[in-house]
Amino acid sequence: MDPLAFSEGTVFSERRKLYTVSAAPGVRTYGERTPVVGGVEYREWDPRRSKLAAYIANGGQVLPIKHDSNVLYLGASSGTTPSHVSDIVKDGKVYCVEFAPRMFRELVNNSKPRPNMMPILADATKPSEYEFMMSGIDVVYQDVAQKNQADILADNMDKFNARFGMVAVKARSEDVSENPKVIFQKTEARLRERGFKIIDTLSLEPYEDSHEMIVVERQ
To answer: What percent of the chain is modeled with pLDDT above 90?
Structure first.
């Protein structure tokens, strides 16, 4: 396994596949392969099932999520990608916000073997609802497929004074009739208006149609 240069040895690649070191050896979250190399169990990270993995697989150059980061993950769903983030932040925490009760039940189950995953049933558009649960947020990761994706990210970054943010913009959730490239440009412009510097943008195709990852830093 070869560590990716920007990841401090937390994300690995081999034969064009991505892996994280399992923080819960012997546990599979979504049926992923778990090869053992040199006594270390790795988890294959499928870019077709994770927008963050798609960003990395497509050559994303900035991963602000480090081994000791506290990450606020908005739109955690059942916990597929958050479980890999849990592997990465072995000395940090992942606060996983999910609004849908059915997905939240699966998220709770997938969090049980991972002490650094904190499932939170809440609305990502209302950070004041879960403010009391947060502590020292470094990165906000936003994967909420609804309108105003830029403001959802910015509101949470402002609330918790996070330095970095990542948003997987789904153009069709903003406006099904608008050209996705225009949606992405508007989203980037709105984030600049909110006081953030764009440090990377990247299409998630072919893994995700009409999606772009935007990485920002507080100015």
So the answer is: 89
Taking only the tens place, the pLDDT of each residue in 200-211 is: 999 999 999 999
Question: Is a pLDDT exceeding 80 seen at residue 219?
Answer: yes
| HSE, side-chain direction, 13 A CA sphere, residue 85 | 32
- Distance of alpha carbon 204 from alpha carbon 170, whole angstroms: 10
Report the predicted TM-score, pTM, of the whole model to 2 decimal places. Answer: 0.95
Q: Specify the amino acid at residue 175.
A: D
DSSP labels for 184-214? Answer: HHHHHHHHHHTTEEEEEEEE-TTTSTTEEEE
Which of 59, 57, 204 has the alpha carbon at shortest distance from 143?
204
The DSSP element (H or E) to which 51 belongs, if any, is helix 51-57
- Give the dihedral of Cα atoms 84, 96, 152, 46; nearest 10 deg: 20
DSSP 3-state of 13: strand
Kindly report, residue by residue over 48-60, the tens digit of the pLDDT.
999 999 999 999 9
Q: How many Cα atoms are found within 13 Å in the side-chain-facing hemisphere of 192?
A: 9
